[in-house]
């Protein structure tokens, strides 16, 4: 039969393990958030780079592009990319 001191010691060990596990879980959640944030920043940088790279290409192919409004450019691109049925 276990005495009360042994039971208290086992209980303390179990609680310590629970605390350690909860701390590890917090660390992993923080790590997950950090990775998700890094991924978001990376995607934004890639998009910005893509937009900066493609703009001159589009403007070089559209006559007087600098004189057209954004809406006119949008309409022009929509018409140019329609597939013929």
TrEMBL record:
Coiled-coil segments on the chain, per record: 4-38
Keyword Coiled coil set for record: yes
Keywords: Coiled coil
Cited InterPro entries: DUF3847
Superkingdom per UniProt: Bacteria
Stored Pfam families: DUF3847
Protein name per UniProt: DUF3847 domain-containing protein
């Amino acid at each position: 039969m276990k005495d009360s001191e042994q039971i208290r010691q086992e209980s303390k060990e179990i609680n310590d393990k629970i605390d350690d596990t909860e701390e590890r879980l917090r660390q992993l959640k923080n790590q997950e958030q950090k990775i998700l944030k890094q991924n978001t920043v990376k995607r934004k940088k890639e998009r910005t780079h893509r937009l900066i790279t493609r703009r001159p290409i589009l403007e070089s192919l559209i006559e007087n592009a600098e004189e057209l409004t954004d809406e006119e450019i949008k309409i022009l691109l929509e018409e140019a990319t329609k597939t013929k049925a």
